[in-house]
Structures are given as C-alpha cells and as structure tokens.
Amino acid sequence: MAFLNGEKLRQIYQRAKAGGYAFMANNIAEANVLVGLLKGYTERRSDLVVQVSPGAAGFAGGGDKLAGLRTLSHMVRVLGDQYPIGIFLNLDHFTVKEMDLIQEVIKGSLVSSIMIDASKEAFEDNVRISHEVVQMAKGSGILIEAELGKIKGVEDEVISDEAFYTDPDEAVEFIDRTGADLLAISVGTQHGVSKGRDVVLRTDIARRIRDRLADKGLAVPLVLHGTSGLLAEQIREIIHYGVCKLNKDTRYQYEYSRAAYDFYISHADSIIPPAGVPDDATGLFSGSDWSPKKADFDPRTVGKLVRARIKQVAMELIDQAGSAGHTLLGIN
After folding, report:
1. 144 within domain boundaries
2. Tens digits of residue pLDDT in 261-274
3. Is residue 278 part of a domain?
4. 113 near 9, Cβ under 8 Å?
C-alpha cells in the first residue's frame, strides 16, 4: 500500500537530514492537484508529502471539516495505490480550535502527521497545547509537528501581521518539554505571495537552532513554512541547516488558476456567446445558430491541463529540494 504512516515518515526525514536534501510538503484540497503531484513525484522517483489545511478540509467536506478530512484521506489512499511511491498525509496549521477534530483524526488513523499551530500563543501556552497533542498521538504512529515563532502573512485560518524569529534557546526548551517530532521555525519567510529577492532568510538562526538541538540530543527535523516565494538558491541554502520539510501551497494555487485562465481566455470564442446572441445558458443556446463547444467547456478538459501544470511545477520543486530518487518503495 502506498499510503504510509508516521514511522515511515520519520525515516524519510531522517534520511533527508543525513543526505542534505528535503521534501516539499504540498497542500491539496481536491483531486486535480493530487493527481498532478502523484504523476510528477512518480516521474522523479520521490516519496510524496501532501497536506490538508482546516480550510481545505472544510471545502472538501462542504463545510464539514471531519467529512472533508475523511474524504481527502480516502482519496489519497485510493489514488496513491496506483503509484509506486510512498505517500504521506499531514494536517497543516490545525489550531487549538480543532482539538476535537485532531482527536478524531488520530482515532481514525487518517493521517501520517499533524501540525499543531499554537505559535500565536504565549510560549508557555504553546508548550502546553503542543505537548497535549503529542500525548494525544502517543502510540498512534502519527508524528507531531509544532511551530515556535510567528511567520508573517495569512495561511488558511492563521493570520499574523508580524514576524518573530525563533529563538534557538527557546527551541531547545520547547522540544524538550513538548516532545514534538518536527519543529517549524521562523527565519524570515512569509505566508502567501512574496518575492524571493525581498525575503531575507536568517540562515544563521536556522544553523544555531539545528546546532543547539543536536548538542542536547534533540536532532529533530526542521520545517520551513511560507516557502512559495523563495528562489531556488534560497531553498537549496536553507536545506543545509537541517530543514527537511518545506511547505508549498500558494505556488500551486497560482499555477492552478493560471492553467485554467490561460485556457479559457484562449477559448473564449467557443464558450462565451458573441455580441447579439442571447446568453441562453438555460436552453444551451437552442434558439441560436451559435452554440458553445462542449469539448472546451467540459471541466475535465481544463482539469487535465491543471494536472499537467501541477506535474511540471512539482518536478521543478523536487529538483530544488533534491528529493528525486529518494523513495522507501521500489519502482519497477
């Protein structure tokens, strides 16, 4: 079975850390992005980490987050069985508001890992909440990622107007007291749309966090959020400092929209009625000599283009992270 649990996920992060590469963690909300990712990762022979945010879960479930998580988890498993790579599912930016939901997810073994985001809370509250989730997941085979420091911008339902760098000494205390398996750090990235050349990465902070944790025997993988605006050279640089997981969402959202927009703009004449023709969508223009071209307005047409675009972007990002050729499963 291609869907793997947290213990296998721990293995791929350990290998990445030792090998000086990382895995992109790619957000999904529906099938087109997932299929594109699966195709791209299979071609590059890389294991795949996908993520679901609270908003994506609500979208997939028609407003019911748990229903959406069950749907997306099942989709990842069923579609993933068709591809010869390891596939992992992470909950992304779930907060204290979703504690009941986190408990249900752990009970149902729906995911490989969970990111509890209590970074906007005071340090002691962040420790308490993160530790509670670690204890909830104990024995489940699900890894827990926590965040220390605030990353500026908007990520789903988490908003921060200011950025605060992660303190290396606090990072040691935080991991020691919470027992979290991964640590998301703040070193200058920003959620949402940003320009890489405007992002000043504090790699010195990442290095100090990595070294302080290692000195205390807490060599946990580091995570970087808000990486969609980073340049390729910035991604390659930050990996050297113990970052094994880099989150990607905004880039895929943009590429999805551009693939659809480019197609519909170039095929507007076969979809939108010309001047003088009544816009009779109800009757499908039965009273006119003009009619739209079904092959162009069929959503599967643009869906295939979206999948192809996501596949190409995924392969580009795999190359930046260096995970090509790294999979726990053999490929024929």
Report:
1. yes
2. 999 999 999 999 99
3. no
4. yes
Considering the domain boundaries, does residue 276 fall inside one? no
Mean pLDDT of the chain: 92
Active-site annotation holds for 176 = no
**Residue type (1 letter), 66:** L
Query: Which residues make beta-bridge pairs with 147?
Result: 184
Range of the domain at 107: 6-257+297-321
Q: Are strands 158-160 and 182-185 parallel, antiparallel or unpaired?
A: unpaired
Selection from 230, 248, 220, 316 nearest residue 17 by Cα: 220
Question: Is residue 177 one of the residues assigned to a domain?
Answer: yes
Kind plus residue range of the DSSP H or E element containing 92:
strand 87-94
> What backbone torsions phi and psi does residue 211 show, to the nearest 5 degrees?
-70, -40
What is d(CA 13, CA 222) in angstroms, rounded to the nearest whole number? 9
Specify the CATH number for the domain of residue 166. Answer: 3.20.20.70
3-state DSSP assignment of residue 64: coil
Which residue is catalytic, options 92, 156, 167, 249? 92
* Sequential DSSP letters for 128-192: HHHHHHHHHHTTTT-EEEEEESB-BEEETTEEESS-BPPPHHHHHHHHHHH--SEEEE-SS-BSS
278 — phi, psi (to 5°)? -55, 140
* 128 strand-pairing partners: none
Predicted structure pTM score: 0.92
